[in-house]
Amino acid sequence: MYDHQNKHNSQPRYTPLKTLEVFKAVNRSFPHTDEINHIHDQGGKVFGWLCTYVPEEILHAAGILPVRITGYDRETDLDDGNAYLYMNNCSFSRSCLQMGLTKEYAFLDGVVGGSTCDGARRLFDLWRQYIGTPFHHVLTVPRKYTENAHSLYLAEVEMFKTHLEDHLEIKITDEELMGSIELYNQTRSLLRELYNHRKKPNPPISGSEVMEVLDACFRMPKESFNHHLKKLLQELDGSQNAYSGRARLMLSGSVLANPDFISSIEQQGGLVVADELCTSTRYWGDMVEVQPGEPPLKALARRYLNNYPCARMFPSEERFRRIIETAREFKVDGVISEIIRYCVPYSHDLPLLTKRLADINIPVLSIDLEYGSSGSGQIATRVQAFLEMIEAKK
Amino acid sequence: MKKAANNKIQSIVRACRIILAMIEADSNTRQSQKMYYRMLLQYYTRLRDARENGQFIAAHTVFFPAEILLAMDIIPMHTETTTWMTSLFTGECGEILAAGARLGMATEICAPHRGMAGAFASGALPRPDVMVWSNMVCDNTAKSGELVMDICGCPGFFIDRPFKDSGLEKTYMAGEIRDMIAFLEDKSGKKMDYDRLSTIVERMDRQIELTRQVNELRKNVPTPFSPLGFLELLTIDYLFPGQPESIEYLETLKAELEEMVKQKKGAIPKERFRLMTLFIPPMYLMSFLEKLSVESGAVSVIEPFFTFWGEGRLDASRPVEAVVEKAYMIPETRMYGPLGESALEAIKKCAREWKVDGAVYYADVGCRHSCATIKLFKDALAEVDVPVLTIDCDVVDQTVTSEEEVRDKMERFFELLEDR
Fold it and tell me: Quick check: A147 contacting B, CB < 8 Å?
């Protein structure tokens, strides 16, 4: 286990966070959580979404529980996923498909994706062909931030809303959308508060614990998630826990959902205080800001396209700028770039990102891993060497 | 090592000259094939001499609308094809792949794009004046441009092609093309000649029509076109879109094939197996595959994702919109776009109409996007009783598979077809 502030004391000062257990319980039982089961029993609908460019608020405003399709956040056999998507496809997609093919997502009433990367697009193609969820929708997501790109994406978001309304035979009102935006913005604000704790020299919560919170965020109704997150924040405010480590680290790169992977870094003495992942800051980073008199859909579309960018977006400099900003804000000593097997966009960005970070004296350790991996001896050795290198520079 | 000493363009030019000298003297070689090699020689000679001639070079990725460059009198450099050609003609791809690895390009990235970055970094390809690219195929093409800009210190423009083909999406892409034209005008000092673009589009329309006619002729039993001749069709579209040379080549080829059909002659002495090719074979195995095809009587008669154009015509009176239309008509979009029923129906239609016995999927291990279609296509072809052979390989990286391995797999597949 990594060090605490008073590491030389015989009794480290660390009190388990009670509310964290709620989130961990959700993650342990997912996808068969009590809340999902309850919604189904009551005749409610649960939809899966596949990428952070899908405006979740629209699903919520339609009275649906949106859950993120995340595949297995642990190491497991992906025999069917490999057979259907081939071995060389991104391991996240294979993991998601594996869960789909083994009927673990059979409870879904719909799936929504974006044309964001090859892995996600192919996953969607095969999902539609072989899994047969009743509702499918893929949004075209432009790769640019231009005015034309915003107009196109807004039209796509409108079409998605109409498709959903037609399918469910309902109307989603602006009031309902505004209510959902408010709720989701509250989630974002609360997560920002959580991350503010991580800026402290000795944060009261570890990186792997934060990952548990984030995973639960994708799997719970936001109403109850926000309720529990508020409780967690109260706990943290009064907590004496104080993590320390050999270096403050930021995680960057492909989709990641396994807290054990972060734990494996922290066990080597790395203090993971920030992240740039689509399961973390790229998910909650920016608020939806509705201008007076503006249709809520327009505000949603603007936020989702302008959000903390994925490596798919152009120009990449925007992503690099945000990463540098985050690295400075959280005072990180080094960045660990984790790229899941066969994830092309992040692999392409790595040489340029490494250069940009080197310019501000932040070294990068690049780790390739299978999605869901909890880390390995080889990774531990590389993290150790990276920490030694950072320590030598200090 | 001096960068100029690594220049692979000269190696390609030299190889083309040698091949051309050999086939010019061979009376059995198709006239169209001679024309094809002359075109390759012309393309790479022009590129080699461009800097010396003070011409403006634009490096671009695959399926990028080179029609725009040609209409502006800009010298195009097709980066992926040039990397393939390096593998095909010089067998020296290892060097540029190693240079790509030194840049930090992970093996997650496909070999042509690792090679492309390595080729620019090592001086194997000349420094372009601009880099222009698009996401027409995959994430690799979408992501490759910025690194090239960084390596070469040149400006660039990325064309964002939306995923689906609604009117809105096509309008968006047309806007992208117009913005790129403005960018090119600014950087090159050359004005877009829209009349010239219209002429190119008109010829491109003819080129597509001729390709369809050539494919119709390939339906004959025995098929008149050489076993891997489809790569010529592919290359002329990549390097000479809407150019007079392409029309001349296709008209000559069509006349040759018509004559062969009339004489009931096949491209190979004894046609035994009519194949569908589902991806590009390894470039460095071309001679071997040609030989194996002749020995085994196996010939590729249709390639649903490379030569089988979608329906539609290009309207030369609206040239920018026509360029967009083409971007959604190219056969590859069937594989790289949304894989709906129409793509699966197209593959079954090809199998039926071209009387296909079996399909060969060259599973390029670097191409994540295409390999993910293998199961879908196998299942679709099973519905029309066509077995599929999958060969793991890489289009340029010679370390992935060998002649022996491919021969073994092919021969076993032919035995299976024979038994059927």
Answer: no
Please answer yes or no on whether B172 and A148 come within 8 Å at the CB atom.
yes
The chain A residue lying nearest B365, using CA atoms, is: A88
Does residue B374 belong to the interface with chain A, where contact is any CB pair within 8 Å?
yes
Q: Kindly report the CATH class assigned to B3-191.
A: alpha beta
Number of H helices, E strands in chain A: 16, 8
List pLDDT tens digits, range A131-146.
989 999 999 999 999 9
| B169 in reach of chain A (CB within 8 A) | yes
**Residue in chain A lying closest to B107 (CA):** A342
Residue extents of the structural domains in chain B: 3-191, 195-419
Same fold, B3-191 and B195-419: yes
pTM of the model: 0.94
- Any CB–CB contact under 8 A between B178 and chain A? no
User: What are the pLDDT digits (tens) for B94-118?
Assistant: 888 999 999 989 888 999 999 999 9
Give the residue on A whose Cα is nearest the Cα of B109. A344
Q: B195-419 maps to which CATH number?
A: 3.40.50.11900
Asked if residue A69 lies in contact with residue A107, where contact means CB atoms within 8 angstroms, the answer is no
